[in-house]
Amino acid sequence: MNCGLTIAERDVLQMKLREMADTMPPRAVWNRIEEQARAEGLLKKPGMPETVKWFTGFGLAAAVVLAVIIVPNSGNRIEPVKSTATNEFPTEPAYSPAADYMNTRQYQVINALMVQSQLLERDLRALPEQPLVRRAGTIATISGLQDRIAAIDYQLNHPESRMTPQQQEVFWRERVRLMDSLVQLRYAQAQRTSF
Amino acid sequence: MSKFIDIQIDPAIVKRAAGGDNKAHEILYRAFGAPVYSVCLRFTRVPAHAEDLLQETFIEVIRSIAKFRGDAPIGSWIRRIAVSKALMFLRSAWHSRGQSLDDDWDDVTPGRAESHGISRHPEEAIDLDAALANLPAVGRAVVWLHDVEGFTHKEIGGMLGKTESFSKSQLSRAYQKLRPMLDPDAVVGFGGNTIDGPVLGPC
Question: What ipTM describes this predicted complex?
């Protein structure tokens, strides 16, 4: 059986067919897939993934270690509250200059980290949209960073987390570090696309 | 080589997806959604059908990825699911119209290439997409599977529930229809009998 095309024509056709660009599906399709898969019980319920739980646990542990290291070495020991002679319950908290100094310093650091984080968010928003064609490895890394940032935000904003300033500092520091990595990665991606 | 095979996925992502990890599945979708949708759209020509097939394909991926052994690239596994879904759709569409797959060449109205948006002049841009649209669905699918995805005639025949010869015959007829846009000097009759020009190659 002959082909209807010469070998050269067939080569040209095959080359042109392979060069044809892919068509992007509408954005809503993934939402439909996700909904159906959840309805059929094929996907895990949303919540903190294992890696995020691990990072959260690590963050909390680091905060505790930091608190243990910083507080005893601060040079000014916090005086225990003296009991009054009459054994009356104190109506005002006892003033502790050391604790006051620690809290002020801690909040300054946290504020600085928050500003740094906002600046990085602004840098991220200023970058062009992600290209349509992306490397799967980059997608995975970006997705992982976003997950970890989301987990930290969850911890920082959760009303029941009641973190100490030391713990908050650890979390904010980690957030800045992750945001910085994300901005650098997205910047590199944008650079690759522009060439 | 097929675009499906070119896309590299970290085995750790596949492993996470096999465990039902939503994010990993989303990564697979972001990587393979466009090639799957494109194949489905080329076969069906109807965006709504292509979207349905894309959804069915990825639901099947989510359902079955735990059974994926990793002997072949994940892309070729996803491609096979997509192609199988799309061909099943074509077969069901033809059956529901009471026709066999062989009949669909009769539906194509003969006409000049220009009337279907195909340029016969080399200096004009060749609208290959329009040329493919001018082919019957099964012929178009066979061209795509053979020339782009690299399936053999035996595999294509098997997927269509037909013989190897059926696939070859579909490809030959499709080539005859596509030839005018490749060689403006060649004269191709719709019966495919009056081809002038150089020696024709085997399928």
Answer: 0.75
